[in-house]
Amino acid sequence: MKKLIQTLKNIWSIEELRSKIITTLLLILIYRLGAHIVLPGLDPNKINLAGAKSGALGLIDAFAGGAFSQASIFALGIMPYISASIFMQLMTILVPQMQKIQKDGDSGRKKINQWTRYLTVGVTMVQAGAYVAYLRQTNSSALFESYKEFFWVSTMIVLTAGTLFVMWLGEKITDKGLGNGTSLIIMVGILARLPQALMQEWDHQNVRGGGGLLIFLLEVMVLVAIIMGLIVLVQGVRKVPVQYAKQIVGNRQFGGARQFLPLKVNGAGVMPIIFAQAIMFLPTLISYSNFENKAGIAKIFADPKNGWHMIIYAVIVIAFTFLYTALIFNPKQIAEDLKRNNGFVPGVKPGQPTADYIGAIMDRITLPGAVFLAIAGILPGFAQWAGVTQGFASFFGGTSLLIMVGVILDTLQQIETQLLMRQYDGLMNTGRIQGRQATQTSVI
Q: What membrane topology was assigned to this protein in its record (predicted)?
């Protein structure tokens, strides 16, 4: 405890770090306040969007911090920007012209960021139109009669402006605050649902009497164990030894040191789960209707407790993990960079043999990473099958928990870097906190 108090004092004593933390907290507070402002033209007392807290809409509501089910001005949250960012990232991988623009340095990145913002506006307007149709279908009684003529246009404008404002908040947090702003906004939205989910699970188990308390404690212990496992998955790397040749320039010697090339076990990050969920939700997103009334294939795709749902979901996650890793990981480029910098893998010839060697290692470690990622994706379904309420079960794995673990590790890593730069002790007595900084797949 004494070590913790001293670490907190050290953090607060660094003026730059203190300013970043205060700025981040203020911007997040603005976001959370906006998430409770209801759209104009709706009676807050008559809004009933209980169906938006389950199924595919439940995931959107989780990312929006509950704003989706509250008909807030931030109902769409940051998700349109995430969708646009994912699309632009794939384009920079698949389209050679986009790759060239991205490699132009700061000007190329600014151009791609600008295109991402324009695409965000288009995606937001499409999603806003669908959301308005959903509100008119399910909550027509909450609409003020005198405002019905203007509701469609005004809501689309307000929702688009709200998403762009949230996007701006995320960029400001990244520039002036601590950590990745977009990731922090998503994480805060997810965490905002945790207290309510815990209370619902407590009430659900408390009905059983004394045995319910024991079950609740066991569930919390299992959740902690899952979080620890995901930390291992996020931080797990395979270190490939790399040797750099000695160079003598004047009277000084450069190189000759033995280093390691870290290959991440989960090189694709959370992207395979996002893609898998998008595919699984397609049959159920034909219309914003009640998923509980779905039948047949749509029912399988909408029910995470269904055995076929888990199998299909796991297969898609594993397939996308290999596909996305192959798209973003280029062993030939790594081999060329090593050769250019007079580096080599001991016992392996430079050039194509090195590329084949690194590619083979990446293929071997990607398989267990993909399997563990698939297990993490279907854990919420197992939790619901075991009797956990749907809201609390969503924290047992899947996109929500992976994002939370990754974002927290990234933020702690930045804090530790600031402490070490100023000769303070880090956050841990042994080792270093590793985030996703080295991963090329961190879209959020």
A: Multi-pass membrane protein
